Amino acid sequence: MIEFIAENLAPIMFASLVVFLLLGYPVAFALAANGLLFFVIGVELAPLSDSINLSWPLLNAMPERLWGVMSNDTLLAIPFFTFMGIVLERSGMAEDLLDTIGQLFGPIRGGLAYAVIFVGALLAATTGVVAASVIAMGLISLPIMLRYGYDRRVASGVIAASGTLAQIIPPSLVLIVLADQLGRSVGDMYAGALIPGLVLTGLYMLYILVMTFLKRDSMPALPPEARSLGSGVTSLAIALVVAAGIAYGAHVLLYPTQGENADILGATVGVAFIYVVALLDRNLKVNAMSRLAQQVIIVLIPPLALIFLVLGTIFLGIATPTEGGAMGAVGALIMAAAKGRLTLDVVRSALAATTRLSAFVLFILIGARVFSLTFYGVNGHLWVEHLLVSMPGGETGFLIAVNILVFLLAFFLDFFELAFIVVPLLAPAADKLGIDLIWFGVLLGINMQTSFMHPPFGFALFYLRSVAARVPYIDRITGKMTAPVTTGQIYWGAVPFVGIQIVMVALTILFPQMVMHYKGPASAVDPSTIKIEVPGFGGQGGGLGLPDNGGGLGLPGGLQLPGGSPLDQPPADQNGGTGGGQQQKPSNDLSSPPSFN
């Protein structure tokens, strides 16, 4: 029995960790305790198994491993982006966006749902924090959607799903952690995740479009009296056309000096121009634009500028993700100050929330380092790698099995725990199968996004439940009694969006170029330009046309064989001379042993 335990210590250790987590112990302490417990067991059983490489002096490596965690510059981006997101949430940006975009999409069926998805994507690209997005949209949009007759399941599902976009659209915290665990660049991970994030947003909107045809009364349009900004879409369209024209002109002017960056810089010029025009039009009361166009431009441009400040500088190579996060935090403070909402209480609450999240991540990382020290010492990584690589179906079978595993674990673990526990075990097997780790990381990120919407433990569902009405209430606008939102309605509303994310996982596997574009266009090789030159024989400097260094093969500093190349020797005449009239050197006598006198 003892020999069996010694030979199978790795799977026993992994199974015990799962038991600890299912019992509800905190993840960081479960990891550390499991690692230390099996370290002691492994040291005692080491003489009984060749697969156990543990000894007491190995613990001396632990301080250096923990210092490596705390000195990781990449992880500094987490507190920066967290602080930026919380300050933006406190600055009232979400309220302004939801009100304005809701007015823009209001005249069409499902307009508020489209607005929630659109604003969710914008908040994801600026805040990167699920809790802030779900709570803000739940407080602002849910009462409005219920007021105008939206189906409760659709309304709650849209809000929960749109908030989780913060996990796949850069600057996402989970992408930072995945890049760190996979040993890849955060910038590459951001670039790879951008298109899948936008495609997922489009799939959410497509679902709303289909539902507006299948259930026409589930998502009615806003009534005319609720559209406080009035009409004016034509004015907005003209303003956008003018901005696009200026952006194109700036691109043409800047291309000779800026090259590939001219398109981004040109777009910046066009956006800045239309923003200044909208501000002047409103403040000077010229009213050349409609109120709707003014409001949309003035409300949308600052978040877009912040997105460029963070992601644009990263993609252009001007800043690292950590530096981009720092600039984003400063930009969030400036936006809050411009709105007059930068108070000491806002900064204090943002710092407190950032400290809590950073400490949470750090403790999980420390526990994961303790666990991995023991797990690698019992060759657990080799056991997992062999188990995954030997699955039927090769790469496809591996991807299917891994995604099913992550999907099931997401019922019980959140994305941080999955990233720190499961991803380090999967990455070596994926690398051995030749799978691009950036693509693999984005695929896992999309899958782990479902952990926020899995009933019954999805955090996005908990966030929405905390702000949704639990008892009947009187609507402050209509004065009518409004029924509450039940927990069952929230859970059932999330189910279709979980299905959409599974479809997105399949699309990412079927169309890997959605992610692989991060490598840039491959340089094409014209076969007609390929020229192969073979060195000639009998060159001036040696037998193979190579520089003669006095040796027979003409190699520089080579074998130094006497007499030059045999190919260069003139033919011998009948008398033992050479055809060139030169006296031939006497050959060595091999009939007797050499003399060294």
List the helices and strands and how they pair.
Elements: H1 2-7, H2 9-22, H3 27-45, H4 62-70, H5 77-90, H6 93-105, H7 111-126, H8 130-147, H9 152-164, H10 173-182, H11 186-214, H12 233-258, H13 262-283, H14 291-315, H15 321-338, H16 344-377, H17 380-389, H18 394-409, H19 415-421, H20 423-432, H21 437-448, H22 459-467, E1 473-474, E2 481-482, H23 487-510, H24 513-516
Summarize the structure.
This protein has 597 residues and is mainly alpha-helical. It is built from 24 helices and two strands. The protein has helices at residues 2-7, 9-22, 27-45, 62-70, 77-90, 93-105, 111-126, 130-147, 152-164, 173-182, 186-214, 233-258, 262-283, 291-315, 321-338, 344-377, 380-389, 394-409, 415-421, 423-432, 437-448, 459-467, 487-510, 513-516; strands at 473-474, 481-482.
